[in-house]
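User: My notes are a mess, but here's the protein and nicotinamide-adenine-dinucleotide's SMILES. Can you give me a structure?
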Amino acid sequence: MGRVEGKVALVTGAASGIGLSAATLMAQEGAKVVLADLNEAAAQQAAARIREAGGQAQATTLNATERASVQAAVDFTAETFGGLNIMVNNVGGNRPDTDLDTLHITDEAWDFALLLNATATLYGCQAALPHLLAAGGGSIVNTASMAHRGGDLVRIGYTAGKAAVVAMTRSMAAQYGKQGVRCNSVSPGLVLTPAAEQHLPQAFKDMWSGYNAVPDVGRPDDIGYTILFLASDEARHITGQNIEVDGGHFVSQPTNPAMRVMYQQMAQQAQQE
Ligand SMILES: NC(=O)c1ccc[n+]([C@@H]2O[C@H](COP(=O)([O-])OP(=O)(O)OC[C@H]3O[C@@H](n4cnc5c(N)ncnc54)[C@H](O)[C@@H]3O)[C@@H](O)[C@H]2O)c1
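Assistant: No problem, the inputs look usable. Here's the predicted complex:
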């Protein structure tokens, strides 16, 4: 018996990275999964790989920023698998070149960040909720980001968009909890998706992991397993929460990396004396 056996799940942005991990893990645990993505060819390939491994999966095209497209993906899921129990609103991002600091972000970058993160999540929830309510309940999991928490030097639009996702998650949990719908978000820290693995300089990865409490930076499955848990009935008493999966990036004193160096220097000095 899988952890989400027999449930029907829709994952947005499922052709790559975190969404792909969540879709694959839920299929491994018995869910019937629809992978929805702007890159439909990649979503189809991913669904085929899941089927080859013995899971149940289909793919569909999606532009998460268009209400009609989101509705079509939800309709496709309900028609293909006979309902919907789990909605994972995972699409998000920004325009890195123009989503800058407060004085320099362009209006287009601001609008796009709110559209791709907050509004896309709203569209996903609006389309999914009638099915979840008709089924007597279900689970919504939204991908937020630790960017919503720490003050960032750039990405003012992205931070606002992800903060909106966390806030909406709490309100939706309050609004539909009595009808059996749980709604939670996951906030990843830096996650080495294939694109990040390829493009981020090693010096950046080393700098980042130096501030983590654990040795490594995150991998897609670190987030995928959290989404799987929140989607499953194991999390039946958890709603309105934002789970931070960041390797302890924010739990330490901010001065800890510098303190570590100081303690090492003090120890060396003591040995010499
Ligand atoms: N990777 C990280 O370090 C990190 C950290 C914090 C939060 N996140 C969040 O995790 C989520 C997934 O990111 P990822 O790193 O796995 O990205 P990714 O680039 O590996 O995958 C994103 C997928 O979304 C699809 N997509 C993009 N725009 C779309 C749209 N409008 N409609 C439908 N599909 C669309 C892409 O085609 C791609 O397949 C995002 O919300 C992101 O903000 C990522």
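The mean pLDDT is 97.
User: Great, I'll file this with my notes.
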